[in-house]
Amino acid sequence: MAETRNSEVGTRNSSSRLFRVPRSAFALVIAACNPATTRPAFAPYPEALHAVINATPARVTEEAKTWLVAQGAAVEHASTPDGFLETGWYDAKDSTATPVRVKIRLWADPDVPRKSRVTVEAVYRPIEDPSRTARDLERAVPENSAGQRLVERLLKALSEKLGETKG
Q1: CA pair distance 37, 45, nearest whole angstrom
Q2: How far apart are CA 108 and CA 59, in angstroms?
Q3: Residue 154 CB: number of other CB atoms within 10 A?
Q4: The pTM is what?
Q5: What ranges do the domains of the chain cover?
Q6: Tens of each residue's pLDDT in the chain, 167 residues
Q7: In whole angstroms, what is the distance from residue 30 CA to residue 160 CA?
Q8: d(C-alpha 101, C-alpha 141), whole Å
Q9: Which of 29, 31, 78, 167 is the most exposed place for a label (fewest CB within 10 A)?
């Protein structure tokens, strides 16, 4: 009877070795699933502009930050590891339209190696209502507005400086 138990234990141990996952795999999974991100919990509006830029998300974020600051926008939050950038409220103006207060957000997600799928949105607030959340009050800027032209110029500048993949 003792022999039976030992052989059962030996069988159990050898079969459990077949399905054993190394500890390093768990460490990799935990590191890859880091919930500490500075990106917002919401997605960009469907009207946001998209492009595939020939640079890493970190580089795209830094270049966008530099360009926006040169345009006079105050960058409120930028995270190169997260590939995210957000300006404060900014008076977007050009010669063809009256100024509109907009906020610009950029998401740069990895695409293929050394390329980023970039999404840029410009939003405005048609009303102020302290009883609602900030995102509930935001709307995508209308087409042909100063805010829309600003994000178009941003994507064009990124494309000219870093290159863009068409397709």
Answers
A1: 20
A2: 9
A3: 23
A4: 0.76
A5: 2-32, 49-165
A6: 555 555 555 555 554 455 555 554 444 444 445 567 889 999 999 999 999 999 999 999 999 999 999 999 999 999 999 999 999 998 888 766 666 899 999 999 999 999 999 999 999 998 888 899 888 999 999 988 889 999 999 999 999 999 999 86
A7: 38
A8: 10
A9: 167
Q: Which residue spans within the chain are E strands per DSSP?
A: 49-53, 75-79, 84-87, 90-94, 97-110, 116-124, 139-140, 164-165
Token representation of residue 85: 């950038």
Helix H segments across 19-145?
23-32, 57-70, 134-137
Q: Which two tokens stand for residue 87?
A: 């300006």
